Structure formats: structure tokens, C-alpha cells
Amino acid sequence: MILVWIIGLLLCGGILCWLTDTWKAGYAKWIALASVVADGLIISALLVHFVTGTGPQAVSPYPAPQVTTPSAEPHAASPHAATPWLIDYRNTWIPSFGISLRLSMDGLSLILLSLTIFLGLLAVLSSWKEISERTGFFYFNLLWTLAGIAGVFLATDLFLFYFFWEVMLVPMYLLILIWGDSNRRYAAYKFFLFTQAGGLLMLLAILALYFIHGRQSGTYTFDYFAILQSTLSPTAARWIMLGFLAAFAVKLPVVPLHNWLPDAHSEAPTAGSIVLAGLLLKTGAYGIIRFVLPFFPQASTAIAPWAMLAGVISIVYGALLAFAQTDLKRLIAYTSVSHMGFVLLGIFAMQETAMQGVVIQLIAHGISTGALFAIAGMIKERLHTRELARMGGLQTSMPAMGNLAMVFAMASLGLPLFGNFIAEFLILLGAFPQYATLVVIASTALVFSALYCLRMMMRVFFGPAAPPTITPPTASAQQDIDSREWIILGLLCVGIVLLGLYPQPVMDLAKETIQQLTLNFRI
Amino acid sequence: MNELQFQALLPFIVLAAASILVILSIAFGRSHTFIQVAGFGMMCLVVLAMWLVRDALPREIAPLLVVDGLGALFTGLIIFSVLVIGLLSFIYFEEREENPKEYYILLFLATLGSAVLTISRHFISLFIGLELLSVSLYALIAYLRTRNNAVEAGMKYLMLAALSSAFLLFGMALIYLETGSMEFTGIARGLPSSGTPILFIMGMGFLLVAIGFKLALAPFHLWAADVYQGAPSPVTVFIATVSKTGVFAVLLRFAQAVHLQQYPAAMTIVVVISVASMIVGNLLALQQQNIKRLLAYSSIAHFGYLLVAFLPGDAAGAEAGFFYLLAYSITLLSAFGVITLLSTRQEDAGDLSGYRGLFWRDPVMGAVLAVALLSLAGIPLTAGFLGKFLVLGAGIGRQLWVPVIVLVLTSVIGLYFYLRVISTLFEKMPPAPARARPLHPFFYYATYAVLILLMGLSFWLGTFPRPAIREIEALLNIRLL
Amino acid sequence: MDIILLQANTLTTGANQNSSFSYFPIGVQLLFALGFVGLVLGVTHLLGPKRKTAEKLQNFESGIEGVGNARHPMAIKYFLVAILFVLFDVEVIFFYPYAVNFRGLGWNGFVEVLLFVGFFLAGFIYIIKKGALTWED
């Protein structure tokens, strides 16, 4: 029931924001903040509960293995491992079609859910001043997007999953369309059409699974756990998997399908960019981990080399394009493509270490990229531009922001001390034994990432200031970050450093799920 | 006719009586408001009669009619739509140049025609129902006869409907030739048990041409855009929902009676028509600048989707088909409700540029229209999504991969133009001059309330369809063998 | 209630026969009819003498000379009266089959015909009240 509350709070908060705004402007943001904070409290209670002792983790019969040493782990998991699921909620919805309202949470869901609420909080805070018109409707859309994302991370009924998958689209579309930049219409269309096309193919795949399972077992149901039991013919598995992958690859995004991402990210308002990069992309990765691998172990083993190749291409291509951008937000968007390539690489390595790396990468990327987008938003608020050519020398006028940006740039390029380093290291380590060539190529791309991050810092904060004819030095352009922005960036900073120094709790939480998953691939 | 038969036919009798009542009240010089209220009262009586029908199901009135679950369900949908259309009509016609009273006679007659279609089990009653519907529609479409577009639309509909009636009769004649019967069950009995009955398939082809005209399926869709644009908005939505509901119901009943699914040749025709409609409708809608034309092309595509539910010919298909029609009707009623409210005395609010920033000018109407368009696009939370989902399910259940995949791909195309309208609604624009105070506040706000109700209904069907689906299943199971 | 439909049931026996052959006589008749028409038209065209004069190309109006253009606007009243005449004339036609079956249909039939007449009466009242039949404006 608590899972329903988490989603319900966001939905109700959104509606409340919209309604109150019509008669009293200015309340909306407080309501939005309150509902996100309330959700945050619930989640932190859950986190505390499951991380420190009282949860199933403590009663789990397996000692925490040395995750970084792959040789130790074959003994760690056995087919009788305790179920990774922590909370399960179930209610009927449309019984005649076997559709139920089933939400379940395991370690992976909990981690991603915490990320959702964390970034959601920061998204609300970062649009505190930026959004001055139609605030009620803005927060309505923001909260509903968050609710959709939370639902995606929790749903274990395929129909419900698709439902949430689509629910997060429309508000996001509106966020870009209404509060976006000059080219918002085009970006919003592109975003919606790409994701919806993928989504519909996934719907076809879901329905096909539903009927195949129904024919086999006699009970027609969309339940995740029931469908997990059905066996598929290799051809059917391949086609259905491609249907799922189409949706997830668009969201992730994998290179040939990444086209929507730079436009959507750069045109969206700051909160939209944070949610897009920090959360929406994660739903793609989550979908692959949760659905594609367990449903189609053979088919995904067969496609793994290609998927990893696509991942490496994404890494290199994203990094190269990021280097060539002249628009700050587009630059950050392309770094996302590159980072998510690592995720794809790690997932299809089908190996526990790499998978742990993937989970950490999801969080680390969410935080670091979210932070970079927040900074880009703050700069845009001051200078009213995203063009790199019109920035420069900002370090003198806003040293605090410059220093913080430096932190996140370093995190993004994968320096030790930050979460991204752990993640990329684990992924490369896990994938290396089988796919050495790909890993070598991916590692060279890390050099590019250093290049683009440093180029960004140099152009924006260091280097010569743009001549005043291009960027007139106004009072607002000189301001360093205020206390609200300090809170946002400070929280993110703490998060990324904590993850870099002590990732163990995250690994513990995700361990059961990952072990269950990788069990399928041990031959 | 015994008492139960009478009870089963009561809604239809009341509908017929309503038109007579309107004729007489016009003759005795009653006002538009009186006729509107009397008409509404009669519609309430029809709804009450529908309640009585429930207990009399299923009932056969040999040889022409059969009132069973399917008929009751579709008639219910028709009557629901007409209730809303009647309300929309008041505001619309009160402010127009033409005397609005005769409109209601035609409206009731057309409704009766469409309702008769849903319960007919004989070619004769089918034809009578169809003609009653079409003849009333000729006049309804051209009702605002001083407008050029209206007359053009009326003429186009007249010509093509007459042509399609000819096709229909010829098809019926061929089928009669093959089977020696005009009753649907008699036709099924008269069909040879083996081999392909060539005359029957040919007749079926002609029949499908005629039905394709009525449902505006490609390649018989040529009239749709002009008629939708030229007709008064309440009539447009009548054509889009009520008339098509009746025709689809009779198609469904006929196909079920003769087991059309056994004949691959006939099914190939349906598949081709369905695929063509989905592609043509969605592609042609892309460039439209007039929302009525856009909805016309989108309705072509939607009936292509609906045929995918018709293809399997099983219970799931019928259920999906009805649910889809229900969702579609609710959606179109609310969309055209907004169009009607926005229309001015001079012309209908067709041009898309008039909708710029509607969401900010009038949040309720903007939201209603946006939700309607999202429902048409099949986005979750709305009824349209569940309809599309059921249709897809019915198609995949029978492994109809070609139409299903075309459905998915074309609905992505469709998404583009729905989004185009939605983004227009949300565009920023300087505040427009305030609208003049509504002429008839009561009816204006009643319409407003109904629109909100329809939006709520769409959400309700999209999120908690369980009671509706249970009811539909139960009613569809009540039938005579 | 018996609704008498003009529906033959002779073909129910005919349908069982070899269908392609049973249409043969119809085909022959069709060919014969077309051939006859074509023949007569062709033969008269070839054999008949041709004299073209201006008078022969004019409309034949029983010896009265045509005046002016036939397509000039007429008062709508003529059309109204004409169409209403047709309408009520058709109503009367429906009485003939009823009169033939008067006894057979009994009271049920009587009530139905009464309803039928009632509907038309309502229409008639409407027409009169609307002033469709008042000749002078």
C-alpha cells in the first residue's frame, strides 16, 4: 500500500498545484515541494529500513561478497536465493483481461525510486524562480512526470507498466512544449513521436506475450511473475524481444535512435532537462534489466554482442559529438548519450560485476548530468544564452558556481572520488574478460570525455570573457549563486561524492536482484 | 405483437412518436425552447424505455427485427450520443440564420433510422433503416442552406449515398439470388456448406462498398472531409457517431449471422479496406488546417482501426469493437462540443488558427479538447487508449499481424497531427478580446457541464473500465440463436 | 401481427439446381432483346427516307408553336403542390392492398392503418399550418 501512496501523493499533489494556482498564485510551488518532500520522507524511511538491518537483507543467508572480485561470486548465488522483492502490493483492476494493479519493489526499484524523488526535489527547487508563468500547470506536469517514472520503476503488471510508461510522456511533452526554448515545438514533437513509436511496438510485444502465455497456461494475465514462467519459441522470443528493445533503446538512447535527445534536452526548461536526463533515460535501462533479460535469456544472449557494439558506438559517437557542440545544453545532452552507452555495454555483458556498475552508473549519471543541467539552467537565467561563444570568464564573477561546476565536470569525466568512476570501472572490468576489444575502445572514449568536459569548463568559466558587445555585462550576469542554488548543487555534490566513496549500500541493495538475473546466464 | 415484444420495441416507438410530436408542436407554433425541452423529455422517455428493454431481452419481432443484447447496446450508445447532440444543437441553431425547429424532426427520424439498423435482422429493415437515416441526413447536412459549403456538402452526400444505396440493393439482390432469403439467419442457412458461393461473395463485395460509403472507409471516403466541413457542427458529429454506430452494428450482426469469417475472399476485402483506411486517413489528415476536416480524416482512420476489431469475428472482437465505438463517440462528442461552443454566428470554428492558445483563454474547453485529442491518439488514462488496446488485443489474439502492425505504425503518424492541434491549444498568445456574454446562459452552462462530464467519462473508462466491460460482456451474451 | 412481405419463395427450390445453367434462358432473352432493339433501330435508320426541315427539328407541342425558353423560374408553389400531391397519392395507393386484405388483417390491421393515417394527418396539419397550401401570399 505504501507504494500506492508514493505514486498517489505525486498525482494528487500535481492536481492540487493546478487547482490552487487558479485562485492563488504562488502556492503551487510550495505544494509541489511539500508532496515531493513527503515522498522523500517515505522513501528515506524505506531506505533506512532496508539498508540498516531490519529488512530482508539482514536475514539473507549470503554474506556480502567482494563484488569487485568476479572469481568469488559463483558460489554466492544459488537457485534458492531469497526472493529479491521487498514489498508487494496487489489489487484487481480489470480482471476480465487479467490486468491487476500490482506494484512491487526490489532493491533496484528502491534505488531508482530514491533517485527519482531526489532529482524530483531538485527539479522543483531549480524551477523555483525560472518558471514565472502558469506555475500551477507547470508543477502539475512535473509531478505527473515524476509519478509516471515512479510507476514505471514499481509496476510489475505489464499493462500497468505500459500505462505508466505512457503517462510520463504527455506531461513531459507539455513541459517541453510550453516552457521550452525557442525551438520547443519541434523538439517536443520529436520527443513524443520517437518515444511513442517505440512504446507502441512494446505494446504489441506485451500483447503477444500475453496471448502466448495465455495459450500455454490457460490463464490470461499480464502479471510479470506469471509471464516470467512461460517458455517461448526462439523465433517468437526474438521478435517480441525486439519489440521491447525498440521502446527501451529509444529511451536509453542507443545511437541510431538517439536523435530526439539533444533537441529535447536542450529545449526543455531546466527542470525538464534534469528529469529527462536524470530519470527518463533510466527507465530505458531499467526496462532492459527488468523485462528484456529475464523474459528472453536466450534471445538476449544472442543479441548481446550487437547490443554491446551499439553501446560502444554510442559511447564514442556521443563523446565525439559532445566535443563538437557550441551549445552548452546540447553538449551535456551528448554526454548523456555517451554515458548511457556504458549502461548498455554493462547490461549486455550479463555479468554481475558489470551489472553492479550499471546500477551505480544510473545513479551517478543521474546526479552528475542533472547537476550540469542545473548549472546550465542557472547560467541561462543570468546570461540568457546557451551559446558557448557568448560565455567565458565566468569564474571571476561567480567563483562558487565555477568551483561546483568543476566538481561535476570531473565527476562526469570519471575521475576517482566520484560515483561515475566506480561505475565505469566496474562495467569495464565486468565486460573485459569476454569482450576485450570493445572494452578497449570504450576505454579510449574516456579520453574524449576528459576532452569535452575540460573544453566545456574552459569555454564557460575560464578563458577570456566574451566581449561586452556580445554579452553585455548586466548586474544579473555578475551574480554568484544564491542560497537556494547552493542547496541544490550542494545536495548533488554530497550525493555524487558519497557514491564515489562508499557505494556499498547501493550494491547491497541491488545485489539480490542482480544475482537472480545473472543466474539465468550462467551456463 | 405481444406485450413483451411491445416492451422491447418501446424505445423505437417513442423515438418515432417524438418526431410526430415535434411536427405537431411546430404546427401549433411552439417556440424553439419548447421543442428543445419537449425533445429532451422524449429522449428521457426513450432512456426509461431502454431500462424496460433490459427485462425483455432477447426478443424477436419476426421477421424484420430482433431486440437482443447487441441491439440494445448499440441503441443505447446511439441514444446517449443523440442526447448530447440535442443539447449542442440548441445553442448552435438558436444563433443561426435558419429556423431551427424542423431540425429536430429530422434529428429524431435519423436517430430512429440508425436505431432500427442496430436491431434489424432482415435486408428489408436494414434498407428501411438506412434510407430513413440517409434521407434525413441529406436535409440535415444542407440545413443552413444559405451557406455555400453546406449546399455543396448536402449535394455530395446525396449523390454518393444514393449511389451506395444502389450498390447495397444490388448486393442484396445477388445474395438473395444465391440463398433465396433476405433474413440473416435464412441467408446463413441458404449458403452451401462447402465450396465458395461466388454470387454471395460478389454480393458481399457490393454490400461492403455500400457500407464502406456509410462508414467513410477508404477508398469510399471521398465525401467525408467536405461533408464534415460543410455540415453544421452538431450534424457533423451526428454523422461521425450515430450514423456510423448504426451501420457498424448491422454489419457486425450480419457478419456474425452468416459467419463471414469463413470466407477468405470476403475477409481479404475487409482487410484491404481496413489497411487502406488507416493509411489514407492518417496521411491525409497530416496537412489539414481545418479541425473539422482533420477530424473527418481521423475518423476514416479510426474506422479502419475499428475494422481490425471486426476481423476476428469472435466475442473479443465484438466487445473490443463496441468499446472502441463508445470511446470514440465520447471523444468526438466532446471535441465537437467545443467546436460548437466556439462557433460564431457567421461560421463554424473550423480554422486551426482560431484555437491558438485556447487552453489559456478558456482552460476548461482547452482541457476538454486536449483530452479528446489525446483519447483519439490513444494515450493512456483516456478511453481511447483502452479502446485501442482492446482492438489490438482482439487482432493479436487471432494473429492478424498485417492489420495490427499497420495500426501501430499509422497511429504514430496520427499522433503527429493530434499533437499539432494540441500544441496549437497550448501556444502562447496575447489575451483575446473577451467573448460576448452567452445568449442563453442556461443552455450554455449546461453544455459546458456536459462537456466536463464527457471528459470525466473518458477518464473513467480509461482507468476503471471494469464495470463498463462487464456490462458490455453481459449484454453481448444475450442473443437469439 | 403478420407483415406481408413481397418475398417470393420460389427460388428456394431453384437454388439447388445447377446455377450456371439456370440463368441460361435469361441470358438468351437478354441477347434477344438487345439484338431486337439494335436491329430495329439500325434497319429503320438505313431504310427510312431522310428529309430535314426546320419544322421537323422543333418540339412537337400538339400543333401549337413553342414560345420562349422552357427553363424560366416558376413559383415554388407549383412544386410544393405537386410534391404534396405525389406524397398523398402514394398514401392512397397503400390502401389498395389493405382493402384487399381487409378481413384477413382484422382489428390489428385496422389499428395499424389508423396509425398510418394518423401520421399522415399530423403531416397534413403541419403542411396546412405552415401555409404550404395557401395560394395567395
TrEMBL record, chain A:
<dbReference type="GO" id="GO:0042773">
    <property type="term" value="P:ATP synthesis coupled electron transport"/>
</dbReference>
<keyword id="KW-1133">Transmembrane helix</keyword>
<feature type="transmembrane region" description="Helical">
    <location>
        <begin position="6"/>
        <end position="23"/>
    </location>
</feature>
<dbReference type="InterPro" id="IPR010227">
    <property type="entry name" value="NADH_Q_OxRdtase_chainM/4"/>
</dbReference>
<dbReference type="GO" id="GO:0003954">
    <property type="term" value="F:NADH dehydrogenase activity"/>
</dbReference>
<feature type="transmembrane region" description="Helical">
    <location>
        <begin position="273"/>
        <end position="296"/>
    </location>
</feature>
<feature type="transmembrane region" description="Helical">
    <location>
        <begin position="357"/>
        <end position="379"/>
    </location>
</feature>
<comment type="similarity">
    <text>Belongs to the complex I subunit 4 family.</text>
</comment>
<feature type="transmembrane region" description="Helical">
    <location>
        <begin position="107"/>
        <end position="125"/>
    </location>
</feature>
<feature type="transmembrane region" description="Helical">
    <location>
        <begin position="239"/>
        <end position="261"/>
    </location>
</feature>
<keyword id="KW-0472">Membrane</keyword>
<feature type="transmembrane region" description="Helical">
    <location>
        <begin position="302"/>
        <end position="324"/>
    </location>
</feature>
<keyword id="KW-0812">Transmembrane</keyword>
<dbReference type="InterPro" id="IPR001750">
    <property type="entry name" value="ND/Mrp_TM"/>
</dbReference>
<dbReference type="GO" id="GO:0048039">
    <property type="term" value="F:ubiquinone binding"/>
</dbReference>
TrEMBL record, chain B:
<feature type="transmembrane region" description="Helical">
    <location>
        <begin position="266"/>
        <end position="285"/>
    </location>
</feature>
<feature type="transmembrane region" description="Helical">
    <location>
        <begin position="294"/>
        <end position="311"/>
    </location>
</feature>
<dbReference type="GO" id="GO:0005886">
    <property type="term" value="C:plasma membrane"/>
</dbReference>
<feature type="transmembrane region" description="Helical">
    <location>
        <begin position="126"/>
        <end position="145"/>
    </location>
</feature>
<comment type="subunit">
    <text>NDH-1 is composed of 14 different subunits. Subunits NuoA, H, J, K, L, M, N constitute the membrane sector of the complex.</text>
</comment>
<feature type="transmembrane region" description="Helical">
    <location>
        <begin position="73"/>
        <end position="91"/>
    </location>
</feature>
<feature type="transmembrane region" description="Helical">
    <location>
        <begin position="157"/>
        <end position="177"/>
    </location>
</feature>
<keyword id="KW-1003">Cell membrane</keyword>
<protein>
    <recommendedName>
        <fullName>NADH-quinone oxidoreductase subunit N</fullName>
        <ecNumber>7.1.1.-</ecNumber>
    </recommendedName>
</protein>
<feature type="transmembrane region" description="Helical">
    <location>
        <begin position="103"/>
        <end position="120"/>
    </location>
</feature>
<feature type="domain" description="NADH:quinone oxidoreductase/Mrp antiporter transmembrane">
    <location>
        <begin position="120"/>
        <end position="414"/>
    </location>
</feature>
<comment type="function">
    <text>NDH-1 shuttles electrons from NADH, via FMN and iron-sulfur (Fe-S) centers, to quinones in the respiratory chain. The immediate electron acceptor for the enzyme in this species is believed to be a menaquinone. Couples the redox reaction to proton translocation (for every two electrons transferred, four hydrogen ions are translocated across the cytoplasmic membrane), and thus conserves the redox energy in a proton gradient.</text>
</comment>
<dbReference type="GO" id="GO:0012505">
    <property type="term" value="C:endomembrane system"/>
</dbReference>
<dbReference type="Pfam" id="PF00361">
    <property type="entry name" value="Proton_antipo_M"/>
</dbReference>
<keyword id="KW-0874">Quinone</keyword>
UniProtKB/TrEMBL annotation, chain C:
<keyword id="KW-0472">Membrane</keyword>
<protein>
    <recommendedName>
        <fullName>NADH-quinone oxidoreductase subunit A</fullName>
        <ecNumber>7.1.1.-</ecNumber>
    </recommendedName>
</protein>
<keyword id="KW-1278">Translocase</keyword>
<dbReference type="Pfam" id="PF00507">
    <property type="entry name" value="Oxidored_q4"/>
</dbReference>
<keyword id="KW-0813">Transport</keyword>
<dbReference type="GO" id="GO:0005886">
    <property type="term" value="C:plasma membrane"/>
</dbReference>
<keyword id="KW-0812">Transmembrane</keyword>
<dbReference type="GO" id="GO:0008137">
    <property type="term" value="F:NADH dehydrogenase (ubiquinone) activity"/>
</dbReference>
<keyword id="KW-0874">Quinone</keyword>
<dbReference type="InterPro" id="IPR023043">
    <property type="entry name" value="NAD(P)H_OxRDtase_bac/plastid"/>
</dbReference>
<feature type="transmembrane region" description="Helical">
    <location>
        <begin position="78"/>
        <end position="99"/>
    </location>
</feature>
<comment type="similarity">
    <text>Belongs to the complex I subunit 3 family.</text>
</comment>
<keyword id="KW-0520">NAD</keyword>
<dbReference type="GO" id="GO:0048038">
    <property type="term" value="F:quinone binding"/>
</dbReference>
<keyword id="KW-1003">Cell membrane</keyword>
